[in-house]
Specification:
Length: about 90
């Protein structure tokens, strides 16, 4: 199912790779700074995921097969993940 996931733009992939590289370096050199950065990223991603889940919702609800396919996960996992995100909004 991985081959059918939603693509991310090249610039976003590069930025995420850069963040991962910087965090990896911080964990060894400045672990408390790495924890602070990770906490900031967690807040950002929770908010973005909740907003995206809300925006994905339709009158009839999302098409779970399409969501699962886009995320590269099972239908049940997709439903659980989006429900989790939506509850955080």
């Amino acid at each position: 199912m991985q081959g059918r996931t939603v693509s991310l733009s090249a610039d976003l992939v590069a930025l995420l790779d850069q963040v991962e590289t910087r965090l990896t370096a911080l964990t060894a050199d400045e672990p408390l700074a790495a924890i602070r950065a990770a906490a900031t990223l967690e807040r950002m991603t929770r908010r973005a995921a909740a907003d995206a889940a809300y925006n994905l919702d339709t009158v009839d609800g999302p098409d779970w097969d399409s969501v699962a396919q886009a995320l590269g996960v099972s239908r049940q996992t997709a439903r659980s993940r989006l429900t989790h995100y939506a509850l955080r909004r």
